């Protein structure tokens, strides 16, 4: 798999104006990081802070994936909202981005798109991350460079069944840590409430995966209990083409990654009123939660449809 990746990666590097020598340097660094993970698997705490010493995994992740991003053809929309967000974070408020998720390289794509004025927001952003990106040796070199709240998603929590209780306990610790971070204030969190990546339907059209009402409600409740103002914003990402997910959902790690050079796009929509969403359904909390999740999903779909 790495041999196939090397061929495509070199071509993407040259297409973007780089050299084969640059590609080979980064490929070697990548292979070295994979070997380190295989020889001594890295253990992630419920809250993982990016590793920058003695090896800067944050900078490496961006440098390695940059050749796959056609930056001149890419776009960032919603700068006015990002300016507001920067002020809110500076005031000690919290931000939660409810977003879709398309590739394992989404955090690096976000950093590349937000370079310059909003670079600090991307660098300090905390990503709610599933088990796959913390256990797959090919994904770990990129995950180690990001701030992560590590959870087991609903899709994989029963696999294997005998570890369900242990995984649930770990998730509780992670949510407790998130609550403590929000109580501190000044934190920015990215969450994909779908619990997985967007995929193409039978017609070959990418569909934005629906948001899980329980997941959305959990973040709303934890934010309410934090004692600090927390603002929810929709984030739409179009990153599918530069690192497409497999067509099927597989349990095993080590999936193939058919990389290619392509544009990526991101949009931030207006702030969401999570209390108002679903307000007309207070008589049935399940209906209310579903309406709230759907309102957040619709906001992301709206922004995505404008790419």
Explain this structure.
- An 8-stranded mixed beta sheet has the order 1-5-4-6-3-9-10-2, with helices on both faces. The protein has a two-stranded antiparallel sheet with strand order 7-8.
- It is an alpha/beta fold.
- Helix content is about 45%, strand content about 15%.
- The chain has 11 helices and 10 strands.
- α1 runs antiparallel to α2 and α10 crosses α11.
Quick synopsis:
A hairpin with a 5-residue loop joins β7 (199-200) and β8 (206-207).
Unreliably modeled segments: none
C-alpha end-to-end distance: 32 Å
Which of globular, elongated, flat, extended, rod-shaped describes the shape?
globular
Radius of gyration: 19 Å
Profile the largest sheet: 8 strands, mixed
Q: What is the averaged pLDDT score?
A: 92
Spell the H/E element sequence.
HHEHEHEHHEHHEHEEEHEEH
Protein topology:
Elements: H1 2-15, H2 20-39, E1 47-48, H3 57-65, E2 75-77, H4 79-90, E3 94-99, H5 106-113, H6 119-124, E4 126-129, H7 132-135, H8 140-143, E5 147-150, H9 164-184, E6 188-191, E7 199-200, E8 206-207, H10 213-225, E9 230-238, E10 265-268, H11 285-305
Parallel strand pairs: 2-10, 3-6, 3-9, 4-5, 4-6
Antiparallel strand pairs: 1-5, 7-8, 9-10
Helix pairs in contact: 1-2, 10-11
Features:
307 residues; single chain; eight-stranded mixed sheet; alpha/beta
């Amino acid at each position: 798999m790495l041999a196939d990746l090397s061929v495509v990666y070199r071509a993407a590097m040259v297409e973007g104006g780089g050299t084969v020598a640059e590609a080979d340097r980064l490929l070697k660094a990548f292979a070295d990081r994979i070997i380190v993970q295989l020889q001594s698997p890295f253990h992630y705490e419920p809250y993982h802070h990016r590793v920058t010493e003695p090896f800067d995994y944050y900078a490496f992740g961006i440098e390695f994936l940059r050749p796959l991003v056609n930056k001149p053809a890419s776009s960032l929309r919603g700068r006015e909202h990002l300016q507001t967000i920067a002020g809110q974070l500076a005031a000690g408020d919290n931000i939660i981005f409810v977003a879709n998720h398309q590739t394992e390289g989404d955090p690096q794509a976000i950093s590349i798109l937000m370079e310059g004025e909003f670079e600090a927001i991307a660098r300090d952003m905390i990503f709610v991350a599933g088990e796959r990106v913390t256990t797959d040796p090919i994904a770990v070199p990129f995950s180690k460079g990001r701030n992560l709240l590590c959870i087991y998603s609903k899709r994989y929590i029963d696999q294997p069944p005998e570890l369900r209780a242990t995984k649930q306990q770990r998730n509780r610790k992670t949510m407790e840590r998130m609550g403590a971070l929000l109580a501190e204030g000044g934190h920015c969190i990215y969450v994909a409430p779908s619990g997985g990546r967007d995929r193409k339907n039978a017609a070959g059209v990418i569909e934005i995966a629906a948001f899980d009402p329980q997941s959305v409600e959990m973040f709303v409740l934890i934010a309410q209990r934090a004692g600090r103002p927390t603002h929810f914003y929709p984030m739409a990402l179009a990153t599918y083409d530069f690192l497409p997910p497999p067509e099927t959902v597989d349990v095993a790690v080590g999936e193939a990654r058919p990389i290619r050079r392509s544009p990526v796009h991101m949009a931030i929509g207006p702030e969401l009123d999570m209390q108002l969403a679903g307000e007309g359904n207070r008589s049935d909390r399940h209906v209310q939660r579903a309406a709230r999740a759907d309102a957040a999903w619709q906001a992301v779909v709206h922004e995505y449809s404008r790419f």
